[in-house]
């Protein structure tokens, strides 16, 4: 009796090893978190001691780019969630887009307010005009970034879902 090596490898990969694969994925995620934590600690230390933080900054950027590329390759999209954890509507109609824009505005306002409060606590001089300017600029910058990033992600997600639906339609014909 001749063994089919490919079939045997497929059975092992698809069957028993699923638990091992999941454990390896969890371990790899833990290593990633620890690595990011160590790089951030090193970055803060270098900033505090007036050393060159560029290698740590490059490491953080490379980690984020790697994370983004791997997720993009695997078609994993970070759909924005509301403050309650509910996924925002990814529809392309006006109602869906309007509800997302309201969320982006609220999120940007919270972001701007949070940093303004931190700025007021850290800054020794209190200035109403400076605080208002912080809120306005922080809100505007955060709103633009949120809108562009999240809408781009939703557009890619919808395009991917459409290709999956088209593939299903072609298979059913």
General description of the model:
- There is one protein chain.
- Helix 4 packs antiparallel against helix 5.
- This protein has five helices and no strands.
- The chain folds into two domains: 61 residues; 95 residues, no CATH class.
- It is mainly α and 173 residues long.
Give a concise summary.
It is built from five helices and no strands. With 173 residues, the chain is mainly α. It folds into two domains: 16-76; 79-173, no CATH class.
Q: DSSP strand (E) fraction?
A: under 5%
Low-pLDDT windows of residues: none
Number of strands: 0
Based on CA inertia axes, which overall geometry fits? Answer: flat
Q: By helix and strand content, what is the structural category?
A: mainly alpha
Treating each run of at least 4 consecutive H or I residues as one helix, how many helices?
5
**How large, in whole angstroms, is the Cα Rg?**
23 Å
Helix-strand layout with pairing:
Layout: H1 5-14, H2 17-48, H3 54-73, H4 94-122, H5 128-172
Helix pairs in contact: 2-3, 4-5
Task: Give a quick set of tags describing it.
173 residues; mainly alpha; 2 domains; 5 helices; 0% strand; flat
């Amino acid at each position: 009796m001749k063994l089919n090596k490919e079939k045997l490898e497929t059975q092992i990969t698809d069957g028993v090893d699923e638990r091992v694969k999941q454990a390896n994925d969890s371990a790899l995620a833990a290593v990633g978190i620890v690595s990011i934590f160590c790089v951030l600690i090193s970055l803060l230390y270098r900033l505090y001691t007036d050393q060159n933080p560029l290698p740590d900054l490059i490491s953080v950027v490379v980690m984020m780019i790697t994370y983004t590329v791997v997720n993009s390759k695997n078609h994993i999209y970070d759909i924005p969630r509301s403050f309650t954890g509910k996924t925002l509507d990814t529809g392309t109609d006006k109602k869906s887009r309007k509800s997302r824009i309201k969320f982006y505005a609220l999120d940007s306002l919270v972001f701007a307010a949070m940093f303004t409060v931190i700025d007021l606590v850290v800054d020794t001089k209190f200035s109403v005009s400076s605080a208002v300017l912080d809120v306005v600029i922080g809100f505007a910058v955060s709103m633009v970034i949120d809108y562009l990033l999240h809408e781009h992600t939703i557009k890619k997600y919808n395009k991917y879902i459409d290709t999956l639906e088209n593939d299903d339609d072609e298979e059913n014909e």
